[in-house]
Amino acid sequence: MILSLNHAKILQKERLTTAARIAATEHIQIIEGARQLLVSLSTSPFILYPDENCSLYLQQVLNKYQRYNNIALANLHGDAICNAAALPEQKIVNVSDRYFFKEVIKTNEFTVGEYSLSKTTKQPVISLGYPVHDYQGRLIGIIYSSLDLDWLKNLVSSLSLGDNSVLLITDKNGKILASNQNSFQAGSLLSDKGIVLNLKSDSGLIEPQDTKNYFFAYNQIGGSSSNPFAFVGLPKATVYQKPNEDFAKSLLFSGLIALLSLTGGWYIGNSLITKLVMAVQKVDQLRQDFVSLVSHQLRTPLTAIKYFCEILLSESSGKLNKKQKEFITDTLTSASRLSQLVGTLLDIGRLEEGKMLLNFKEVSVEKLLENSMKDIAPFIKKEGLKLSRVKKRGVPSNIFVDEKLMIQAVSNLLSNAVKYSDPKSLIEIILSKSNNGILFEIKNRGIVILPEDKSHIFSKFYRSTMARKKADEGSGLGLYLTKLIIESHGGKIWFESDKNSTSFFFTLEIK
Amino acid sequence: MPKSYKVLIVEDDKFILKAIRYKFEEAKFNVKTSQTAEGGLTLLEKWTPNAIILDILLPGIDGYAFLRTVRNHPKWSTIPVIVASNINEPPDIEPGENTGYKEYIVKSDLDLNSLVEKVKTLAR
Known about the structure:
The complex is a heterodimer. By secondary structure, chain A is α+β, with helices and mostly antiparallel strands.
């Protein structure tokens, strides 16, 4: 298809939206990744109690995260007392005049600083700072890192823009603050290159002049009139090499905008996204603390009720008659159920929020099943049920899971199987090898899942028609929690139910 | 029981404390109790128990601070400590010989008989 250049540009709009979205995602990840690294470092004993090993430690971190140009710790005077880039004889660098340092001191928050040229590599870098607090919450230093623009070069490379493409950061007068090409030195003016600026709008294109070689797109960073501009330039020859191959051009143009969005994201990220992320995290933390506190406060009186019931039932404080024993046993059962419910709600809250730290470890599949069956063993005996376990060929012996949570999930499924089985029927546990792990099946015969219940069976607080008829206990949270647990391990859970039997399946990958 | 084991219970909830105390006295333990960590440390100055049952959320200094103090004290560092709390998250440190406490239990998940048995095992 042959298109004019203008027509081609119009066609890019749709692609540009996608490119901008990709770029936005990437810059969030970069900013957030840097913040998380600094947050993590700020709690390290090497940083909290810096000694002669501190720089060595930061060097090791730097080796691991090669995206960063440097990582260092400054005291409150701005002296970089630990510095991954420091040489043994090197003078201590002072960063007290740097924007990121002043901002962190002022705001006590993560800050994305200014662009500057690295003293060692002479490449444009951006500095990010985070406050370090001691255990009493006092500000004791600032951990900071410098991020070079290699990731932008990589993006240039991945978009096939060519090594000779230019990324510039300029002030509003066109003075170059940072550049990825030696031919556009920091400190020089774009106008010196004959590039005519008309920066009335916050974004646009600059067509190459006859005598000049670059096609530029620009975008103001962060939207404020005093903020710098990001420029991405491509050699004229590249752009006009094959003017009618608009697909190639679309890639180039999308690439330009993607880069602009990305660089714009630096500043926007600082003022908006990062603060937003931090605000959301604060709210999450408050909510989490609230749930934990409520859980604790509910459990405390429940524990006392449980303990006194146990003491009364032991009859050490006096003999009980039959009815008194029965009533106190019922009280104890109810208190235990309520206590479990509080725990379940807490687990659900954490899994829903993705806040639960899973304690993955290698666990024997056999042992996992054994431990999951402990609670149901008395009921199997009482109902005269038979339990069979089949492990098919090729099923791995061990699996990486959070043992406590996985026992809870399997135990929930087994408990349901027992609850809804016909007396003296067979419950089967069948393990098969799946693509990347194990397929578990728990099959029982008895009460089936009715068609009208099938789409709700994993919903929170849902109790199926038959479940309500069969057992008056139950919170409707068991299968919901089980699903959350399986999915938090990267697995899938589903069921099949016909008039004869019901099977619950779930998969777990071997990690 | 060949001898009377001594147990210190640091627990701020008066009802839970009353129940645990009753159960351990019934099991012939020599029991001392405190509703604060500071009170527990004062008791330790004059009396060395065979085991400590320690709550975490306490008024004043908390159970972690109590644990650190006991762990760093030359005379008390070997006393086994059972951390008994209703917070679902155990301390960041794993229980063990060198970490100041032996076991973490969620109180509401445990019955009193089991608690007595655990302390007996540790006190031996």
